[in-house]
Design goal:
D-Maltodextrin-Binding Protein, domain 2, six-stranded mixed beta sheet, 12 helices
């Protein structure tokens, strides 16, 4: 009788394995990586590298999709509305879990998303035309006190935009207009649609050509590509809140899914290819795991809350 029971148990395992039930595991269906901004900037590039590597390693379809609008809120809300199963991963910039929550724009709260890692320190800069009559923030302020200066941002509630407005307030001037775009480009500068704009690596071509110049870097230290451009904190101390990008999943996402995504993404982030992209854009591309990312993000939230005066 004992042998018969063992045989039946073995048979049951074989059947389950054959039908795929016992071998079922993450991932079993396509995985979506959501970038909440338009294509072209560094968070989009690195995320696409991750989704490509994910598909190659697992054999399961994976893609990066850009869901832009409302300062990243539409894409973030899309991720929030999906099941917490690891099949939708958010590539989120800092404003997604700070500005939108503090301003009351989000339908989610702080504990709804959890970081797999912070992966990018963003090379944000305040940029103007190459022939503008000001070369730093103090000169911009003096000019703006007697001349109209327009500002372009991507997301009025984003940390870069709010830091810029706080900078203007501190230096005693106001921008004549502030316009939010889904992205800021070199073409806006070449067409003279605006006087001053916030941007990252996507504005590198017009900086290199001299058609644009940077007034300040919104980073923790000067960007190696632009060593002569002082940081915001050097020029107006106390308001800098450097930007970053992280990979996020919904809370309650299974550990197995987190492990697979993290293992593949970490390999990409630390690859020579990713580090070359970092060097060419001035960004910091690194793998900051959850145990470090969580306190880092919490500290950012507190600093940004203080910046907003909450």
């Amino acid at each position: 009788m004992k042998k018969i029971k063992l045989f039946l148990a073995s048979l049951a395992v074989s059947v389950l394995t054959f039908t795929g039930i016992a071998s079922a595991g993450y991932p079993e269906k396509p995985v979506e990586f959501v970038v909440v901004w338009p294509p072209g900037d560094i968070e989009d590039t690195i995320t696409r590298m991750i989704s490509k590597a994910f598909q190659e390693e697992t054999g399961v379809p994976a893609k990066t999709v850009n869901i832009k609008g409302s300062g990243g809120l539409i894409g973030a809300t899309h991720v929030f509305n999906q099941p917490a199963d690891g099949y939708t991963v958010g590539s989120f910039t800092a404003n997604i879990i700070s500005a939108h929550i503090l301003k009351g724009n989000a339908t989610y709260d702080r504990n709804e998303f959890e970081p797999l890692a912070v992966i990018i320190g963003y090379p944000m800069q305040l940029i103007t035309h190459g022939d503008s009559p000001y070369n730093n923030l103090a000169e911009l302020a003096e000019h703006a006190k007697t001349n109209d200066v327009s500002l372009a941002v991507f997301g009025l509630n984003g940390p870069p935009a709010l830091q810029t407005l706080k900078m203007a307030e501190t230096l005693g001037f106001k921008f004549a207009s502030v316009t939010a775009y889904d992205e800021t480009t070199c073409q806006m500068i070449l067409n003279r649609e605006i006087d001053v704009t916030l941007g990252g690596g996507i504005l590198k071509p017009c900086l290199v050509s001299g058609e644009a110049k940077a007034l300040a870097s919104y980073t923790a230290a000067r960007i190696p590509l632009y060593p002569d451009v002082p940081t915001l904190d050097e020029q107006v101390p106390g308001i800098a809140t450097p930007g970053w990008t992280g990979l996020f999943v919904r809370k309650d996402t299974p550990p197995e899914a987190r492990e697979v995504i993290s293992r593949i993404a970490k390999k990409v982030v630390e690859s020579d290819e990713a580090q070359k992209i970092a060097a060419n854009t001035g960004a910091v591309v690194m793998w900051m795991p959850p145990e470090k990312a969580v306190p880092f993000i919490n500290n950012f939230y507190d600093r940004f809350k203080e910046l907003l005066g909450f």
